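#random but structural
TW: two for the price of one
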Amino acid sequence: MLTKRQKISISSILLAVSISLIPVIGDENKLPLLFLVITASYFLSLWSIYGQFSAFELVSLFVLPVILTASFGLFLSQFEITTGNRLILAIVYIVVMYIVLLSENIFNVSVERNIPLVRAARTVGYLATLFVSFAFFALLFGLGLENYIFVIVSVVVSTLLFTQAYWQIELKDTDPTKLVYYSLVSGLITGEIAAALSFWPLDPPKIGVAITAAVYVLLGIIQHHIKQDLNRRTVVEYLLVASGVVFLLIATTSWGI
């Protein structure tokens, strides 16, 4: 019988190979293959860490693996990538996916019993959330979608990202009502920011940075609130970060004047 680590390794490699095929096939087949790989990422992740899941955990545990896969898939479908670079990206994906799935497995186990590795898993989850936010929203904007579609997808995806991130704080002690409320409010605020940014003359990387900054600020403030150690100094520090990002965007954007 395969161990969970072996399953995680197999899943990561299979998905990496599948993603690497996206640039090779014809343009008309890229989108169907991308959706297929994203769907497969959910079920392979589920198989990798299979255990006793609540209905909520069937969503929260697999948000990061699925959106991570979508981000790499979007990148490979948008740009012409050489074989050597595809190999490098595949290796990076395998490593990141392996670490993310290990962390999700730790969270799953921690729901039943406390284990020392949960603090390290929270750090991985936090960093992965920020990385995925930047990659996904930058690449999503790069698709050139209608503004309203970009905003709707941003609300849905950011709400899912906030949900899994807030759940990681208290795990089994999480209040479902508060979790849903915090996630929806954070997702809607992120969507409003995405809507405002879509009218700015920004390129995809700057959009990614701006929305990731919003995720960072909202995530940080709500996390401190949940832990009941939020104070004025903390809020000011996060708002200074947000102000700094806004200033940099304004200063580095060509306004056509």
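TW: number two ↓
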Amino acid sequence: MGEQAENVTDDLAPCAVIEQLPDLVNADAALVRRGRTLTVDVLLEIGTIPYYVSIESGRIARIERGPLIMRSWAFAIRGNEQAWRQFWLPFPPPHFHDLFALAKRGEFRIEGDLYPLMANLLYFKGMLAAPRRLMKDTP
């Protein structure tokens, strides 16, 4: 796990990964179709940096890097930078493969109105796992 995580550190910084999220998600027709009824604002926090993700009809309309004063969101997923790096590995180690596994482990916090998350859980799991396609396979 350690060597693989170190290689990811060299591949892409989490801020670079999150900025590519709209292209990754919007190019995935199956994922967009899955979220076609979803319009919501979400906060993803990577370390101390908040990112406000606006989703409209399953497409990521925009991502704004914060902090932004008085910016509203329905729910937030917060985690440290190393946990996000592990989560985005092509084959994440045990307990880093799923949002709820990371939350149970204490690496992620999920806060706010959980209804949009739970009602569209497969969409959000697919959306957040999309950056795994960017990471090159490491031994």
